[in-house]
Design a protein that fits this description.
The structure is a single chain. The protein has 238 residues and is α/β, with parallel strands linked by helices. It is 23% helix and 26% strand. The chain contains six helices and eleven strands. The protein has a nine-stranded mixed sheet. A two-stranded antiparallel sheet has the order 5-8. A hairpin with a 2-residue loop joins strand 10 and strand 11. Helix 4 packs across helix 5. The longest helix has 14 residues. The radius of gyration is 18 Å and the shape is globular.
């Protein structure tokens, strides 16, 4: 089983309008998408910023193979100490899926080494998501493109490092385009940034989005043993 923790700052989720869309919160909807996996590959827990240790004490973080991260208005409230603990876990092999506004989180900026900024607007645009790397594991089982009837627009230039692999590009009806599905390798860990997921829209109820989430969790999971560093005994003798 791939051990997944879905972390959410859990702020918008308290608003009546958002609860009407996501009764169990954004984290609950994401967790449900993973639990729907036909192969039952995932054991899933959720965590939120308002919990002890900001939802990720050592015993949970060390028991996580893939961490999902959704944040928006409380990026700065996440402790630097927690960010460093997560960064070390990713470096050592834990997978990380950063969603929507999480692009501007302390965590994503720490790992990318850039500001991770873009242009954006919220004007009721629809989004067309193109699969530009159809052979990638995250794209398996998805069509050439799929659409969301309404989503918050993000627009280039997106100030991120050039992705190691670009799986999706999005076009918005307002004319914007964005590199919306970006893969990175960080030490022994894998990172996937996926843009769709504005809290006020039912994005995480879309079947294709839920399929992407499951594919991403499987792709980001650790494979094999972690590398060993430091002094070692020579393998050959003179």
């Amino acid at each position: 089983m791939i051990r997944v923790t879905v972390w959410n700052e859990n702020v918008h989720d308290q608003e009546a309008a958002i609860r009407a869309i996501y009764p169990s919160g954004l984290h609950g909807a994401i967790a449900d998408a993973l639990r729907e996996d036909a192969e039952k590959r995932f054991s899933v827990r959720t965590a939120t910023l308002d919990q002890p240790a900001q939802g990720l004490p050592d015993e949970i973080l060390s028991d996580t193979d893939v961490l999902f991260w959704w944040g928006h208005v409380r990026h700065n409230d996440v402790s630097d100490e927690l960010i460093e603990r997560i960064a070390r876990r990713v470096r050592d092999g834990m997978g990380l899926i950063v969603l929507h506004s999480g692009h501007y989180s302390k965590l994503f900026r720490r790992l990318m080494g850039t500001e991770c900024r873009s242009k954006w607007w919220e004007n009721g645009d629809h989004e067309r998501i193109f699969t530009v790397m159809p052979g990638h594991p995250i794209a398996m089982g998805l069509p050439e493109f799929f659409e969301l009837p309404i989503e918050e627009t993000y627009c280039e230039h997106f100030n991120i490092p050039t992705p190691d692999e670009l799986v999706f590009i999005s076009w918005f009806s307002g004319g914007a385009v964005l590199r919306s599905g970006c893969c990175y390798h960080y030490g022994a860990g894998k990172i996937f940034y996926f843009q769709p997921g504005h809290e006020a829209y039912p994005t995480y109820q879309d079947k294709n989005i839920r399929h992407v989430l499951r594919n991403a969790a499987a792709w980001a999971a650790p494979m094999g043993s972690a590398p060993v560093y430091g002094q070692f005994t020579p393998m050959e003798t003179k």
